[in-house]
Amino acid sequence: KAGVTQTPRYLIKTRGQQVTLSCSPISGHRSVSWYQQTPGQGLQFLFEYFSETQRNKGNFPGRFSGRQFSNSRSEMNVSTLELGDSALYLCASTVDNRYGYTFGSGTRLTVV
Amino acid sequence: GESVGLHLPTLSVQEGDNSIINCAYSNSASDYFIWYKQESGKGPQFIIDIRSNMDKRQGQRVTVLLNKTVKHLSLQIAATQPGDSAVYFCAENRNTDKLIFGTGTRLQVFP
User: Nearest-CA distance from B46 to chain A in Å?
Assistant: First the structure.
């Protein structure tokens, strides 16, 4: 079966712009989580969605937001981009919120 | 605060040797642990997991050990191969909707 698909793979944006990243989970998976990965902070949890509802949120500013659609696909948005937002953004899906997390390959965002 | 950490940022082993990657966690309430492997340009890949009611779990060439007394987790890779070269992360889950990741250990395998 197809894995978790994230688009685009690479993105370059200018400070102050906004960006939208997309994640298509494995078929049948209803939970989608987002993580930010940077060399300095490692993997940090952003938020988790289940059945179109945000169930948990990490310690990120309100510029980071997300949503989930009825087909379980999810998007995350970052507004007013800062240089420090440059990172690999990873999406993970699971049927159950605790077990069987499967990650996508991520979107590499570079803010210049 | 929340933390799951690793003792060694880089581990270099010879091909064919066994590798041991360590991880410490801070919260005794954690009840589920996972090891992930991340290769360059890819997302984390599940290796093996263990629940807190177990001390040891074995997979193909990998073994995870959990010591709840000292809050320590380890990943053992038998007969390490060049394809095992990657960054390895431990993660914990405490019956919430998120994983808390350690900082990662880079495993380098040389011939």
Answer: 7
